[in-house]
Amino acid sequence: MTATPSATEHRDLRTGRSLWLDRRRPPLVIETLDKALSCELLVIGAGISGALIAEQMSDAGLDVAIVDRRGPVKGSTAASTAMLQYELDTPLSLMSARIGRARAEAIWKRSRLAVDALRERTERLGLADMVEGATRPSLYLDGTILDARGLAKEADARRRAGFDVALLPPAEVEARFGIRGRHALLGDGNYTADPRQMAAAFLQVAQKRGARLFAPVDIIDIRPDAHGVTLATGGRPDIRARHVIVATGYERLKSIPRKGNRIISSWSIATRPQPGAIWPGAALIWEASDPYLYIRTTPHGTIICGGEDEEFADEARRDALIDEKAARLSEKLAALLPQIDAAPTYAWAGSFGNSPVGTPTVGRIPRLPHCYAAMGYGGNGITFSMMAAQILRGAIMGYGDSDAPLFSFHRKF
Predict the structure, then answer these.
(1) For 70-119, how does the pLDDT look when each residue is reduced to its tens digit (9 = 90+)?
(2) 354/356 Cα distance (integer angstroms)
(3) Phi/psi-derived region of residue 348, left when phi > 0, alpha when psi is between -120 and 50, beta in every other case
(4) Who's near 402: CB < 8 A, 6+ residues apart?
(5) What is the DSSP string of 185-252?
(6) Closest CA to 301 of 329, 340, 269
(7) Which of 14, 96, 236, 274 reaches 20 to 30 Å from 108, CA-CA?
(8) Which helix (H) or strand (E) holds 120?
(9) How far apart are the first and last CA of the chain?
(10) Would you call 313 exposed, middle or buried from its count of C-beta atoms within 10 A (0-12, 13-18, 19+)?
(11) What angle do CA 368, 47, 409 make, to 5 degrees?
(12) Residue 315: what pLDDT?
């Protein structure tokens, strides 16, 4: 019925070693695609987005299959710092100025609902201990994007939208958190987890309901018709599905609208465990700056610090900067929190996505009937993955989602 893209992009998504790779992931049944496969729903991608989507769709009673060209949880999921925040990279006050207050507030509120839903679902499924899930406050420091006055305006914007935040002066920030000379917004209700364990655990739940996982399988052609979609795999049997969801993260399906999405490079470090040095509430710490520093802890007292993002996608150039960026992150971390040992035990780099206002693209792919995409571009990747799972469940099951137009391919921002 229509011309189709021939494949997804192929990228070297991460380099170095993140701390998540030191833990053995939950066991998964991985099958070889050695005969033609038919299913109601095919999910392309077995990272965190594909895992959350597969779990939602299997919960809805669909016959689900998942394919991945590498294998489960081998892409950018293991490079995530997994700060599962509702606060978007674009401050609410600035987003309101760009796209209108009503839409900006709706996006922020849906982001909060997604974090709550992810936490609640993780706990309901009995996965919280396995994934080291923890609820954390968030400390947002003034910086180059929002100075002290801008931070006060941001506090007003969030309160107007119904978010409960506290605006802290520098003396209180220093007394409570040991950070000198900074104003801050303090909020609650965010979440942290081990992203690799979380993805594998949600895939495991889906498999227990009958979902099947095939790897390595690289989709080279997608051919929709009036009744469903045929997918060619290149050297393996074809797959026939009633619906297809592309959840390939930062390896975008070729020839679909970009909606301003672009690939950037980011770097992260993690320290040795030091539980005695952790600040009150183990708050997530990040800055209203560009580029910004972001900091979280694990339940064992390891400190994770990321940032130094740069607007390029060249993997060789990204990887060559790991040592330099790790040293710079360590220096910034030590300057901000002098009470900790900021020496890196782990250092890694990854390709990540961004978008004009820091929002994802989720929904039906234009000109590809029965095909949907979850493009989690923006700093809230795993939050957006949960949001996508909810929105796409509504689309495929037919009851819809009132927020879907905010993230669709047809939005005007």
Answers:
(1) 999 998 898 899 999 999 999 999 999 999 999 999 999 999 999 999 99
(2) 7
(3) beta
(4) none
(5) EEEEEEEE--HHHHHHHHHHHHHHTT-EEE-S----EEEE-SS-EEEE-SSS--EEEEEEEE--TTSP
(6) 340
(7) 14
(8) helix 101-124
(9) 29
(10) middle
(11) 30
(12) 83
2 band by pLDDT with thresholds 50, 70 and 90: very low
Q: Give the residue among 150, 3, 119, 145 at the shortest CA–CA distance from 52.
A: 119
Position of tokens 């107007």? 160
Render the burial of 210-230: b for 16+ CB within 10 Å, e for the rest.
Answer: ebbbbbebbbbebbbeeebbb
- Give phi and psi for 364, each to the nearest 5: -65, 135
Q: Among 171, 178, 139, which Cα is nearest to 338's? A: 178
Residue 39 sits at the vertex; the CA angle it makes with 38 and 40, to the nearest 5 degrees, is 140
How high is the pLDDT of residue 41? 98
Which tokens in the block code for residue 287? 């800055």
Amino acid identity for residue 3 in this structure: A
Tokens of 108: 């922020």
Residues in Cβ contact with 244 at an 8 Å cutoff, skipping those fewer than 6 apart? 41, 42, 44, 222, 229, 231, 370, 371, 372
State the amino acid at position 193 in one-letter form: A
What single-letter amino acid sits at 404? Answer: A
Backbone conformation region of residue 235, classed left if phi is above 0, alpha if psi is from -120 to 50, else beta: left
- Distance, in Å, from the CA atom of 290 to the CA atom of 150, rounded to the nearest integer, reads 15
Distance set, CA 321 to CA 264, 287, 334, 335, 347 (Å): 14, 22, 20, 21, 11
Output the pTM of the full model: 0.94
DSSP code, position 33: -
- C-alpha–C-alpha distance, residues 356 and 94, integer Å: 12
- Closest of 317, 314, 321, 313 to residue 262, by C-alpha: 313
